[in-house]
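Trying the structure run again after the queue cleared.
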Amino acid sequence: MSALPVLLSLAGRHADAVRRWIEGVLGWQPVESETADLVPPRVELVDEAARVPAGSGDDGCPPRILLVDDDHAGPDAAAAAACLAPDAVLGWPSGREHLATVAAGFSDRPGRRGGGQLLRVGGAGGGVGVTTLALAVAGLRAWSGVRTLVAVRGERPTARAVAGAAIADPDLWLRADPLDGVPEARVVRLLDDDVAAVTDPRIEAVVIDQGVAWDTDLLVCRPDATALTALDATTASRFAAVGEGPAPAKALIAAARARRGVALPWSARVARAGYHGRLPASLPGTWLRRLAPLVSDLRTG
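Done. Tokens:
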């Protein structure tokens, strides 16, 4: 929580005291509204005198904490809460010791106009085509007009390599490599598993290649025994079965229960495009057409 970017929307008599507390005691970084696009805040602090619109993390703004003057608690505080729609309310200075704990509870929520929608693509096992599916999903998102970053894994010769912590950089979009043929999509290659939350306000959606992972949003598998086990345990709401295998379609459907799924043909051309960081549109184009209905209404993060 150190150096946490915090937007200060304060106009009351304790404004200076709050700033001194978060800088000197908590070590947080105050952010002004004029620079919020460069350093997206993770939390906003407001008081009863603030003149800001209602909002919360649900509409792209950071989570909002209302600081109520201990001497003015009562009807004024209730009116401020109704007007400002905070995510939490604390007394000041009586509640200042709890500020860090409350803010930590919001640490995973998307920041102001940054962070965007998160979609995780994981595989039931290795070599099932997770990276190829992640690139395809990113391309479909970007073609719909959503500025999308895809973070892949493994050896991808055309993708800029970044540490997982660098995903939080506020200029990540400018440093990521364009995805060929898709102007609104860019790609980076992850060097480790410790992936931070995206804060760059230019990025509207993020697709993460998780490698082998069952705790995911979209599960990629081959029709085999591993897929049957993964489908029984995964948190994914959708799955894509790639290629042919010993498990019959009826068995996959039964293991998936009510999850939506799609069968995709395996193609060397598609796999080669994924390896080189290109959108896998071959067969010719039928591969993406099959995938599009599965992910068009998938909303996560």
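Confidence is low (pLDDT under 50) at residues 108-115. Worth checking whether this holds up in the mutant runs.
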